[in-house]
Amino acid sequence: MVASAPVLFERKQVFALDLPFAQQIRLINHRFEPRWRHAEQEVTILTGLHGDELDGGYICHRLSQFLQRLPVGWRLEGAVNLLPSANPLAGSLGERFVPEAGSDLNRIFPGDPDGSEWERLAAAIFAIAGRSTACFDIHSSNSFLEELPQVRVVHEPRLIEWANCLGLDVVWSHSQHNWIAGTVAQALFERGVPALVIELGTGRRIHRGHCERVFQGILQWMLAVGVLSGGPVVAAPNRPLQASEFNIVYINAETGGLFLPRPSLNLGERLKRGSRVGQVIDPLSGQEAEVIAPLDGHLFTLRVHPLVYAGSLVARLVHL
Amino acid sequence: MQKSLGPLLVPFGGPLNVAMQEFGRGRPVLSVVGGLHGDAYNGVYTCHLLIEWLRRQELRQGPYQLRGKVRVLPAVNPPGLLLASRHWPFDNTDLDRVFPGYAQGETTQRLASWVFEQVRHSDCCVELHGPENHLAEWPRVQVYHSQPRALDLAQILGLPVVWVRRRSTAKTAHCYELPVRTQGTLAHNLSQAGVDVLVIRAGGGQAIEPEYCTRVFAGLVRLMLHMGIVLGPPPEPPGTASPRVVTGTAVQPVHCRTPGLFVPAAVLGESLAEGEVLAQVVDPLRGETLERVHTTEPGLLIALRTHPVVMQGALVACLVRDGH
């Protein structure tokens, strides 16, 4: 154990898997505990279930550095687990998943300690997350879309309150039956552990501005629920946009081609019904198809990969 | 003795290990390199057979005596082999196009540089390759025309076909050798450094074919006996008494004319008569046979397509013309 003032910090290997050709994957947990009191609360922050989603690695790094060197006046009251790379093999390649390592790791939770190698990895992650009093699972978008920092939760009052506490741009609640089976969040919810899924940025990129807001948001949440104490009360930012299954507007390309967003378009912008989002062009035929907002709404998802097929998602709005 | 490259640091993991085994001492030196491409498992298994055998001889558990040095690099592209990806998985680099490498360069250049340093002072280097262009190969060894000593060594291996290749590939596209850039290959760079290079291909990719591996392994023992690296009796199974030594002009490439699914009807090593059907191309959407691919001359089938999807004009087989 590395003793840093009032905090016990340990970098623990919690799972290892030997692979052929002398390779190995190791699941590392940054474990923090208060030194002078028994921790009643325990929060797990995990990321990298998909190896192409890298913002969470940076956010965990920020959190770990902060907790290792708590500023004067701050105190750690609860235990914190940080899993900065939950799927190390896919992470080392920057791939969402590697077919040889099973398919999507975030579809086999809660895993099985006696199952296949990847079910055992999932079970090792779940063993930590499942004994927590709250869990954050941080995702980036894929390489196609950029997302404003947002949090997705099951539609329950306490979870929505916690989600709002992060102060991100959007809180998107889903009914429980619409949660994807096999995800860590769904398996935790079944177990009775509150799970918050944070989504931000783009795959294979780190968006430092978005990351900083999520880092600050998690600190703010920790202060609010008492995992941390003594920090300054952060002025509550604007209340996040409240999204549910009924007020999200999906805008899809109607033809194949190259998507060009309107030059001045920015994420977070409020769009009027009928305003231009961009166009899809076909350089071979010379055709240009306008992409129009069908309703008023706040833009929180925008396509960054120019190639589109008919039906490709180019934007999402929260309609209020 | 095991040595390994290090440290080649990768994200979210430990240092990457690239293994090398060394047996014996002094000269002559034979190097054997496998697993440059992540789909070339036959070569990796052949290295396994060789390492196991050499260890037994070193412990005096066999009838052979070591008189020179053998260096074996069984798996040069570990992440590729782990993921069955031909190229280096992170950035899709073909490792066999970045030689001689560069120790201060990209990851693959550093790896290539390390490999090149290990093998460049050999008297002979054997590369165990997987298939190219989706063709499974009747066991053959390829040598450069400019290396007459390598041609002698190649025949000692006792594999059925010895392919003599001219270094300039610019105008050989009409036959089997595709006009690929070879400047970055290990074989090209070793030959420039004066090392006799033998490139062996046997079987397909993505699988281990023990029969082919055993034949190549026995060939390597014959090579070591001939070079004076080991002393002892000839190995089993015996090699082909007189391998077919061919050049590009002796090889008849066979292309299909129609796109579709390629269904082979012949096997490697088979002697085919003129006009014999060696495969068909079918359209599974309409349930029709589009083409019967046949030979135009009698010959020995030395390469046959394994991947079922063919484009119009794809190379699907190669024969060595009879009389060559």
Q: What does this 3D model show about the protein?
A:
The complex is a heterodimer of chains A (320) and B (324). With 320 residues, chain A is α+β, with helices and mostly antiparallel strands. Chain A has helices spanning 55-68, 88-93, 117-129, 157-165, 184-191, 208-225, and strands spanning 2-4, 7-19, 23-34, 42-47, 75-76, 79-83, 134-140, 145-154, 170-174, 195-201, 228-229, 241-243, 248-252, 257-261, 270-271, 276-282, 287-292, 297-303, 307-308, 313-318. Chain A has two domains: 2-242, 3-Layer(aba) Sandwich (Aminopeptidase); 247-318, OB fold (Dihydrolipoamide Acetyltransferase, E2P) (Beta Barrel). Helix content of chain A is 21%, strand content 36%. In chain A, helix 4 links the parallel strand 8 and strand 9. The longest helix of chain A is centred in the C-terminal third of the chain and has 18 residues, at 208-225. Chain B has 324 residues and is α+β, with helices and mostly antiparallel strands. Chain B has two domains: 2-242, Zn peptidases (Aminopeptidase, 3-Layer(aba) Sandwich); 251-321, OB fold (Dihydrolipoamide Acetyltransferase, E2P) (Beta Barrel). Helix content of chain B is 22%, strand content 31%. In chain B, strands 1, 2, 3, 5, 6, 7, 8, 9, 11, 12, 14, 17 and 19 form a 13-stranded mixed beta sheet that branches. Chain B has a four-stranded antiparallel beta sheet with strand order 16-15-13-18, with no helix packed on it. In chain B, strand 7 (135-144), helix 4 and strand 8 (161-165) form a beta-alpha-beta unit. In chain B, helix 1 packs across helix 6. Classes of the chains: A alpha+beta (320), B alpha+beta (324). The A-B interface holds A 19-26, 48, 85, 88-89, 91-94, 98-100 and B 4, 10-14, 16-17, 19, 75, 78-79, 81-84, 89-90.
Short description:
Chain A has 320 residues and is α+β, with helices and mostly antiparallel strands. Chain A has helices at residues 55-68, 88-93, 117-129, 157-165, 184-191, 208-225, and strands at residues 2-4, 7-19, 23-34, 42-47, 75-76, 79-83, 134-140, 145-154, 170-174, 195-201, 228-229, 241-243, 248-252, 257-261, 270-271, 276-282, 287-292, 297-303, 307-308, 313-318.
